[in-house]
């Protein structure tokens, strides 16, 4: 059953990966050159690109690019390779909010097993599972080169309030709103917007 779940996950990934290649895109290279066509991200660090739908696929490493814009339902999303504090390799992240503090996100799929509640010869009886989207948030100050991982909106979010309070400690008004739970982890975009508009 677990193998079946993994196969289904691979099929789902391949479906969405193939579909994404039909999406309009703009590649912006580090030298300023631009290419317009259709593209998809592969393994978060390779871009497969076509000038048009009938053209041959060309692969680019994200390290060659400044950023890429991909259209989803006519709305373009921007992706950049960002250095992360404490990590050796940069991550390709979606740009969400830009300003004195810039917000990036990364969305991953995670399998969540479901058990029957009864125990068999080999332990709890597995009855299937589902897949949940886990969105990780990263924030970066405009005068710094690396982004700070602020946590996930689902699994690893217990320390969000403290982590956010530490990062925004130069704005006491915002820290109070976070500590009083006026702003919660799911409202990270609003937190960043508040900081950019109201804090020095």
Care to give the gist of this entry?
The chain is 23% helix and 48% strand. It is α+β, with helices and mostly antiparallel strands and 200 residues long.
Describe the overall structure.
- The protein is α+β, with helices and mostly antiparallel strands.
- The chain has helices at 2-20, 160-167, 172-179, 188-198; strands spanning 24-29, 34-42, 46-50, 58-61, 65-72, 75-84, 91-97, 101-120, 123-141, 146-152.
- It has a 5-stranded mixed beta barrel.
- The model is unreliable at 11-20 (pLDDT under 50).
The low-confidence runs, each spanning 5 or more residues with pLDDT under 50, are 11-20
Overall pLDDT confidence: 81
Distance between the termini: 54 Å
Helical run tally = 4
Secondary-structure element pattern, one letter each:
HEEEEEEEEEEHHH
- Tell me about the largest β-sheet: 5 strands, mixed, barrel
Strand content: over 45%
Radius of gyration: 20 Å
Features:
single chain; 200 residues; alpha+beta; five-stranded mixed barrel; 4 helices
Task: Note the topology.
Blueprint: H1 2-20, E1 24-29, E2 34-42, E3 46-50, E4 58-61, E5 65-72, E6 75-84, E7 91-97, E8 101-120, E9 123-141, E10 146-152, H2 160-167, H3 172-179, H4 188-198
């Amino acid at each position: 059953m677990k193998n079946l779940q993994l196969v289904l996950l691979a099929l789902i990934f391949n479906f969405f990966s193939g579909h994404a290649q039909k999406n309009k895109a703009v590649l912006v290279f580090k030298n300023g050159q631009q290419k317009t066509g259709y593209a998809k991200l592969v393994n978060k660090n390779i871009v497969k690109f076509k000038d048009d739908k009938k053209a041959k696929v060309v692969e680019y490493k994200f390290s060659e690019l400044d950023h890429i814009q991909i259209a989803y339902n006519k709305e373009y999303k921007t992706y950049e390779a960002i250095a992360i504090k404490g990590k050796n390799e940069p991550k390709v992240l979606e740009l969400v909010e830009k300003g004195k503090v810039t917000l990036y996100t990364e969305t991953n799929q995670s399998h969540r097993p479901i058990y029957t509640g009864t125990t068999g010869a080999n332990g709890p009886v597995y009855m299937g599972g589902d897949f949940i989207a886990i969105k990780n948030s990263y924030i970066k100050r405009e005068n710094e080169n690396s982004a700070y991982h602020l946590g996930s909106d689902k699994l690893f979010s217990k320390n969000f309030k403290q982590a956010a309070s530490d990062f925004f400690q130069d704005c006491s008004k915002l820290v109070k709103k976070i500590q009083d739970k006026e702003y919660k982890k799911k409202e990270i975009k609003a937190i960043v917007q508040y900081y950019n508009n109201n804090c020095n």
